Each structure stands twice: as C-alpha cells, then as structure tokens.
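Much of what follows relies on a compact textual record of a protein's fold. Here is one such record, which you should read through line by line:
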Amino acid sequence: MKLKILGTFLILILSGCFPSKRIGVATVGLIMEDINKASYKSENLEIIREGTPTYLMLIDGLIEAYPENKRLLIAGAEAYSSYTFAFIEEKDKHLAKQMYKKGRDYGLRALSKNKKFRDAFNKPLDEFNKALASFSKNDVPALFWTANCWASFINLSQDSIEALADIPKVVNIMKRVLALNERFYYGGAHLFFAIYYTRSHALGGDLNKAAFHFKRASEISEGKFLMGYVLYAKYYARQVFDKALFVSTLKKVMETRADILPELTLANTLAKEKAKILLEHVDHYF
C-alpha cells in the first residue's frame, strides 16, 4: 500500500503538478526514507518481496530525473543491496550480480561527489586510501552500502580477475566505516570483516579475527540483529566444522521473536527464514 501511495505521489511530481521540482525531489527523498523505515517493521516477507521491485523502479526513475541527488543515490545502493541479498542471490546469481553492480554504481556516484575520492579512484591504492580519509561520519551510509554492494558483486564474480583486483578497495572502504562509526547498521562493517576472515588461511583468512568481529557485531546490536547469528552459523561454524555450534546458533534465531526490536522485524523475519533453510540442510554441511 505504501509503495502504491509513493507511486502516485511521484507521478504528480514528475508530471509537473508541483510548482518546484527542486522541492519535489527533496520531499520524495524524505518520504522514501520514511517508507524504508516503515518497511523494516513489517514481518510480511511476501508483501516486501512483491512490492520492492516497484520501489526499485521508482528509485531508478528518480535517479534518472535527478542524477546528482546524493540522497537518492544512497537510497538506491541500500535498496539494491538489501533486496538482492534477501530475495535474489540464492535463486538467481546472474541477476543478483547485475543488481549488486547497479547498487555499487549508485553508491560510487554518491561517493564521487567528493572530489578527492573522484580524482583518486583509478590511481594507486595508497592514493585511494588517502582520499578515503577525507570522508566524515556523515558519509558512512554511502561508504557502507557502496562497499556492501561491491563486495557482494565480487563474491559472485570469482571468475573475473578484474573484479577480484578491487578487493583491497572494498576492504579499505569498510575499514573507513569502522573508523568513523563501527555501530552503523548494527555493526554491519564488523559482520563484513567477520565473513572476510572466514576465508582459507592461504587467502588471508584468520578465524580468530573472524570470531572477534562476529562477537563485536553481536555486542553492538545487543544480540537483536538475528541475521548476525545466521551469518555466524553459515560462515564461522561451518568453517570450524562445529555442528553443535551451527545448530544451537540457528535454533536461537528460531526461538527469538522477530520483533525483539521493532525496526528489525523485517530483517529478523528474513533471518528466521534463512535459519530454517540452513537447519534443514544440516546433514549436507556436516
């Protein structure tokens, strides 16, 4: 229903029914943020699953009309990251890669409004890192969602040397997020590094560091962000081949109310769905 209301509102704006497009797009940006917040409190995955493609099309249309609006670009990166992870990645990896790339590109366009970052983007890594230092705490959402989309794109592009070569850039963007605000999105940057360090030791993995980052993310969310537990079971418990840890962690997710924190109801409902699927395949993993 909220998406339909937004659609009608946008039609009025883009058809010229509002006296100022500048006022219109600023208002839409705020409304879209409010709708995001409202959707996070929903426990109906089907409504979100069916309604979000419309929302993505609206974002694409607005960005087409207002390509320099940073608020819309960040909203686009967040929306493509969240929807693709929730509903697409496990079913259609080719489509997921395309969607993550689109979210990454929106995020990079937002970050490129910083001239130092724009100028250093294709330069050696040390210059890229110096440019990252010019971002402030206000830039954390753009940094986080860009890196999140980019990392997911790379994860689905293991056959591309060009994509893999960008890993250091993504890692350093997330390091900047940690430095500026480790608590953003329930310790999301810590979860990124937790998964990153569950790689094999030969590729730079470190299970002690992985455990530290999983623990820190859980502390930040006070254990209320259930997806953190799902990722802990999926990546850490399986990597250390601990069936008991895997099962107990996922059972904890299943036994916890999705609305333990209202704004996490949607994410936690999704976490419970993913936990159920993982538990059904426990004998396949161990």
